[in-house]
């Protein structure tokens, strides 16, 4: 085990002993951790009775018990009470906290973003996390502040650090909201509108390296959104706006990312001139009135009985119109039924005798309906009408034979109309004439079939699958990569971790580490997390250090783990402190020592240099105040170049004034260096494109000294 001598010497500092007295007492097992006390405060009620309680009732019980807890804690601190003297209640204060965390999860309010999504049901919010907590790694950390490593009477066992994977810092990589995703029905949706369970086009990788990638249909499992810096990647075929870590596939099947060090897959740095895989440029159109008329024309003229039948009444003959449309594909019937209804022709769907069986369909013998349908299927010449006509005609008479798409019909006028439509849409085809049987229009190339589906939107899903399993891959050359600034971005997690976006093949994989490198990350439930905590403590950890990413989205599992943990150990919250007030109320009675970041001295800098969207200073300061009232604290402040006056000095002043220069320890950190895209495009963030200078560090430390802050032992 590596020894850091300052872990021993730091405890000789009287201010460290005084300001971290509670933490040290728990570390040395002289006092019970607060979560242990929480288990001995409670009510004599069956825990199951709480299931019916409303959230308000639970909060009211919580707040009542919080008063009792603080009375007990105070007495334990003073030494007038020990844990052994307290009976374990049937329902503990900790149990009520766990129940409240579960309620908050149902409409997530763990952090100030207050997404309101039901994470208990698997929905995900800004952080990208659902119900599960994911731990990427845990170990004895010897790089933390000296008092957190042990010492002072405890072995220097390091800080028992548990890293929660948290997408907003680790593995989200996203594209702009209007990026086009192709559904497996060949309809285009902006990524912002794609829903969980939608089926989207993707590619599958064949086992043999030399075989081509195949078009596949995959399900969207999760969807994420956040604010992030984005880059505009221009190619000779199409453009895409993505984050620096978002990988796209090149022609040699390598993943390329603007910043490969942050990519969740092994990636090569993306540069101008590189050749990437390109499938097909997504195109969309509106299914307007002309489209619907065209669809009805193609569908009904291709697949309907419209005739007259004669009935004799005495010497007179009467002609009655007869309309019958019966098909085996329900999606085809639904499309015709709904388009007719859009033109005011509302026919019920009935069981109809057809050939040798019964099918569902539409039937009418009313003259006015017959005449209106006849009027509707009259040919038109607009592009939209041709799109609809080709879709309806394909649904009625088309299909795949071998690898080609064919529309077969005996009516050469209809086939001629189809040819005019294909020419108007720029789709290559061949007209096939056969002696003694119906002619056909054939589309052979996979790219043309894809264009046909995307530019016409046939409705019969069974037929649309004909292109899956085919290779649909050309290439594009990257011409330019330009930083664009910050915007809301989206990411999808699909069942094979790949989706096609703006025609490019992109890797999504929110949980790549967990899916593909199980050693790097595991899903943990409360028992498993408690086992990790116990293992770290038994091996000599001075504390349990919850960190991420960000631990806050994992609050429910962290609290529940404490119920399963029987070892005494100080609990440490290592956080950005953007927790909601509710989360803080739940945490203040279980956390023994806080290790929060306080980075920005004003909201303008916070907005510009982070994901933004929250009142940074207001939230972080309020949470620091609450935390310091209820536990020991080492605040971390990172000095950034050119931000001494606007951030460092105001932050240090707030700490001294609002939290008490005599109460907290401050770690003033000088290790900032430009990384990732700041390093690559320094002209975009010139203020932070260098390390802080020696003069700036001196100024920061001098200011802290003038304010009476204690920083030397932990900086
Ligand atoms: S933890 Fe925060 S970001 Fe995540 S879903 Fe809850 S409120 Fe949203």
Features:
Endonuclease I-creI; 4 domains; 30 strands; 8-stranded mixed sheet; alpha+beta; 24% strand; single chain; 5-stranded antiparallel sheet; 715 residues; Endonuclease - Pi-scei, Chain A, domain 1; binds iron/sulfur cluster
Brief characterization of the structure:
With 715 residues, the chain is of the alpha+beta class. Helices cover 33% and strands 24% of the residues.
Give a structural overview.
The chain contains 22 helices and 30 strands. Helix content is 33%, strand content 24%. The chain has 715 residues and is of the alpha+beta class. It has an 8-stranded mixed beta sheet with strand order 25-3-4-26-27-28-29-30. Strands 7, 8, 9, 13 and 22 form a 5-stranded antiparallel beta sheet that branches. The longest helix is centred in the first third of the chain and has 24 residues, at 55-78. The protein folds into 4 domains: 1-171 and 520-590, no CATH class; 180-280 and 472-510, Endonuclease - Pi-scei, Chain A, domain 1, CATH 2.170.16; 289-467, Endonuclease I-creI (Roll), CATH 3.10.28; 596-616 and 625-715, Aldolase class I (TIM Barrel, Alpha-Beta Barrel). The relative contact order is 0.14. It is elongated and about 115 Å long. Iron/sulfur cluster (SF4) binds at residues 108-111, 113-115, 117, 119, 125-127, 129, 552-553.
Number of domains: 4
> Terminal Cα separation, in Å?
23 Å
**Beta fraction of the residues?**
15-25%
Helix content: 25-40%
Mean pLDDT figure: 88
How many extended strands? 30
Overall geometry? elongated
Q: Based on helices, strands and strand pairing, what is the structural class?
A: alpha+beta
The tally of helices reads 22
Bound molecules: iron/sulfur cluster
